[in-house]
Amino acid sequence: MRIVFLLIPGLELLDLAGPAQVFGTAAAFGHDYTLDYVGEREDVPSAQGVTLRAVTRWPDLTPRDLIVVPGWNTVQGAGRHPLLAATARRLAAHHAAGGTVASVCAGADALGASGLLDGRRFTTHHELQDLLAARYPRATIVRDVLYVTDDRVITSAGIASGIDLALHLVAADHGPAEAAKVARDLVVYARRNGDAAQAGAMLRHRSHLSDAVHRVQDRIDADFAAPLPLAGLAAAAGISERTLTRRFTAATGLTPLRYQQLLRLERAEHLISQGETSEAAARSVGFQDARMLRRLRGR
């Protein structure tokens, strides 16, 4: 998967660096991401004063590839996008060919200029929401969320929310365990949009200092769809089953089994939201059939 970052003069460094770090870390973990940096000119000044170097020739893209438009400084010029018409057409053409286009913060303005927001839901930095809602009246602004996905057009809120967007895409490509591994390496929380819990179970229960419990969580995160007997988890942590249960519950508020069930439930919910049947989703996450899944969803 090729990730192309479109560098626009005055870009905010964290809008670019956050998603680039997520995909770069995922690539270091063995996932097939190639990062490219394209601009309308080679030298691209950032809002923070660092000048970045881009290539001006676009790589050949396939429908599997992603274009990301980081935001730029909007203090001057009322946030108006500075794109050339040819660049806006290229964004629209990639989407029309089946590709995905994403934005961070003010980058939503570039997507709007390309016609990609028309008839779709989108979000942006809270200070720009009224402005862009008025500028693109055929689009629907969604407030108070970190990111919005609508027909392969993905928009995120301000600055650091680009990290959340990128983690969401890694999870969609490779599963939540891999996204959680990347998030832990970056020392950030994995979040979701406003239609789901703001923090996934994998990281919602990580705010403790027990190394033994973290090791067990790592084991469960990596293989939550498989049977994981308590004896094997305790042996991996080098402690007794009783001690593991006590420490795990004290650190997370859950037993190891309940934690595993939460991970299975979250993944099954994601699969169902993507069109899987309850039965298929249940089997994908390790249940023999959908009965246990229905019981857990009912709770």
Automatic annotation (TrEMBL):
| Protein keywords | Transcription, Transcription regulation
Gene3D superfamilies assigned to the protein according to its UniProt record, in alphabetical order: 3.40.50.880, Homeodomain-like
Q: Which SMART domains does the UniProt record give?
A: HTH_ARAC
| PANTHER family on file | ARAC-FAMILY TRANSCRIPTIONAL REGULATOR, HTH-TYPE TRANSCRIPTIONAL REGULATOR RV1931C
- Top-level taxon: Bacteria
A Pfam family it matches: HTH_18
Q: Which residues form the HTH araC/xylS-type domain?
A: 214-299
The name this protein goes by in its record: GlxA family transcriptional regulator
